[in-house]
Design a protein that fits this description.
Number of helices: 20
Oligomer: single chain
Order of helices and strands: HHHHHHHHHHHHHHHHHHHH
Strand content: under 5%
Mean pLDDT: 81
Low-confidence stretches: 1-6, 465-484
Shape: globular
Largest sheet: none
Number of strands: 0
Distance between the termini: 48 Å
């Protein structure tokens, strides 16, 4: 049983966590809060849904461009300065979006938002992991996991509530007080940056990785249209993205630590297994967030606000499981907690695979609550274990790798389930059977994740691995100096 002193979180680490969470929660909510307003935006700005869809796609692509740069920017600017600058850019983008006068201006301003937000999401995890040590990491990641797990779920709910009482511009103005509070807390509470490090930018790596992510994300975002994966605007960018990504992998492994993103962090078992599980959790979370609102709207006749409100039990479940996840992590280790979490998600998705328009709504509400419990439990151990054993300077690279895995996983999940839903509807002629098939695939994602959870290191392995990894990092540094 840990002593009270051992269990107490370092005050400066706690201040850092609070400061970045207040600023970061607006970015996490913003990834889904606009999704319920696309039809209203199209009508108000006198354009088609195919054009206004770029409000979401442009934001997503901006994330893909910026995320690979975060590690280099942090080394040049310092974490505090980069955080404040990124939050200021996000705030500027939010204000500009609120005063947009047509679709083109709104799409351009969403890109500005995405540039700021793209730097903040991986930087948030990096700053907290670099500030924390040992057993306090589990409790801190429970705090970080709260907006990460709940944000995509509550985003459509909050968006629907805002649209119920105000126009779409308030979807962006709601960010202003959060951003201002985040800037004030960051200025007062984040530790001062040390001297800047003059790290040379890996221009070749940037020219390969950013377009690779943009191509993959853009291609996947187009899958939801007619034709699925057979569309030219899906195949061409995805193939190009995969080729560029393969080229970056070859380039990065030859650069021996001087690459834009050091892929050698994936030699660590905790990092590669956690990245794979974050990919699957992204597919399960975001993929289901495509299916669930559509199910309530198309089969149950709910409007956008009603569908959002029906998802509240899932968000409540994630909130309830936050504290339990940290305690379970200390008792069972990451392997056991992740397996239990994904098992809960899978079991709670099964009722939707049997559901039709007449299924008891109370049964589905209970299933959503249990699903939320599972999602809340999963994020904490996976995000915590990803950084175990990594030296301080490798944490930004692992943060970028895990963020990319989750982002691409979410896009893959949405794309696959959208194609399955469309193809099943066409082949069966029954919307209910189409949703059943898509939900069974969502269950399949979680089954794979349960199996993969056992690749996470156990409690003893984690305890032994940290000093071993640090010693290995010291050997690599010595070898690099000798080569120079």
């Amino acid at each position: 049983m840990p002593s009270s002193s051992a269990s107490r979180i370092d005050p400066q680490t706690l201040r850092t966590t609070i400061a970045v969470l207040v600023g970061g929660i607006a970015v996490i909510l913003d990834s889904t809060i606009v999704s319920v307003a696309l039809h209203e935006l199209a009508a108000d700005l006198d354009t088609g849904v195919d054009t206004i869809q770029w409000v979401t796609t442009g934001y997503l692509l901006a994330l893909g461009v910026v995320i690979p740069l975060v590690g280099w920017l942090q080394s040049r600017m310092g974490a505090k300065r980069l955080w404040i600058a990124s939050l200021a850019v996000f705030l500027l983008g939010s204000i500009l979006c609120a005063v947009a006068w047509d679709a083109s201006s709104l799409i351009a301003f969403r890109v500005v938002q995405g540039i700021g937000g793209g730097a903040m999401v991986p930087l948030m995890t990096t700053m907290i992991m670099q500030a924390s040590r040992g057993p306090e990491r589990g409790r801190l990641m429970a705090m970080v996991a709260l907006p990460t797990a709940v944000g995509p779920i509550l985003g459509p709910v909050i968006g629907g509530l805002i649209l119920g009482v105000a126009d779409w511009r308030w979807l962006f103005l709601v960010n202003v007080p959060l951003c201002l509070a985040g800037l004030l807390l960051a200025w007062r509470m984040l530790p001062a940056d040390g001297p800047a490090t003059r790290v040379r930018l890996d221009v070749v790596g940037l020219a390969l990785l950013s377009p690779a992510l943009v191509g993959l994300l853009f291609g996947l975002s187009n899958v939801t249209g007619d034709g699925g994966f057979a569309r030219s605007d899906v195949l061409a960018p995805m193939i190009g993205g995969l080729v560029l990504l393969a080229a970056f992998v070859v380039w990065a492994l030859r650069r021996r630590g001087a690459a834009l993103v050091d892929l050698r962090v994936l030699r660590s078992r905790p990092t590669w297994s956690a990245s794979a599980l974050l990919f699957l959790s992204g597919a399960s979370l975001y993929g289901a967030m495509l299916l669930l609102p559509l199910y309530f709207q198309e089969l149950r006749g709910a409007d956008a606000l009603g569908a959002g409100l029906l998802l509240i039990p899932q968000g409540v479940g994630s909130l309830v499981s936050r504290t339990a996840a940290a305690r379970l992590l200390e008792r069972l280790g990451a392997r056991g907690v992740a397996a239990i979490g994904f098992l809960l998600v899978g079991v709670a998705t099964i009722p939707f695979a049997f559901a039709d328009a007449d299924t008891s709504i109370w049964l589905l509400m209970v299933a959503l609550f249990v699903r939320g419990l599972g999602l809340g439990i999963v994020i904490v151990p996976v995000m915590t274990v990803a950084f175990v054993g990594l030296p301080h300077d490798k944490v930004p690279h692992a943060s970028i790798v895990t963020r990319v895995a989750q982002q691409v996983g979410g896009s893959v999940g949405v794309a696959l389930l959208a194609v399955i839903l469309s193809a099943s509807a066409a082949s069966t002629g029954s919307p209910a059977l189409a949703f059943d098939a898509a939900f069974w695939w969502a269950v399949g994602f979680t089954v794979v994740a349960v199996v993969l959870s056992f690749a996470l290191p156990g409690r003893k392995a984690l305890a032994d691995e940290e000093p071993a990894a640090i010693a290995a990092a010291e050997r690599e540094a010595s070898e690099a100096v000798a080569e120079v």
